[in-house]
Design a protein that fits this description.
This protein has 169 residues and is of the alpha+beta class. It has one domain: Gcn5-related N-acetyltransferase (GNAT) (Aminopeptidase, 3-Layer(aba) Sandwich). 33% of the residues lie in helices and 25% in strands. The chain contains seven helices and seven strands. It has helices spanning 16-27, 37-42, 87-102, 114-118, 132-138, 144-149, 156-159; strands spanning 7-10, 47-51, 57-67, 70-78, 106-111, 123-124, 163-168. It has a seven-stranded mixed sheet with strand order 1-2-3-4-5-7-6. It is globular.
Length: 169
Amino acid sequence: MSADDVVVRRARTGDVRGIRRLVDTYTDDRRLLSKATVTLYEDVQEFRVAVTGDGTVVGCGALHVMWEDLAEIRTVAVDPACRGQRIGHRIVAELIEAARELGVARIFVLTFETRFFASFGFTEIDGAPVPQPVYEQLLRSYDEGVAEFLDLERVKPNTLGNTRMLLRL
């Protein structure tokens, strides 16, 4: 299989099992957090997937809007057998374009892959880049990714070693 045989598109409910398989590939070493399958179905509209001609999901990534001007790219994963074919690059490029279409001005990532995201213009940051009133509103979210963004104490074990990065569009 070559990268030319792979199509990046919006995820469908039928892709969730493939997304689940990719996420599970990276949860043992804690590069990705495990997510309940129901959460993947609830969030399927946030995902882009890379699929082969036979429909096999070989890459995924999601764009989660957090606030009027802020979104997070999350759950980026590529099948280990397909790494090095720029599949992850194509997925992230599509997610950035989706953020632009939504009118989002900034995109956040929490990642171990700093060089990869820096290639898109992401820069390292400290803290949560939102004013206090927005921070207080975000505290009401039940989303674990939002809790990680806010750097809440209860999720710190999930984020150890990750780097906070931001892209301004």
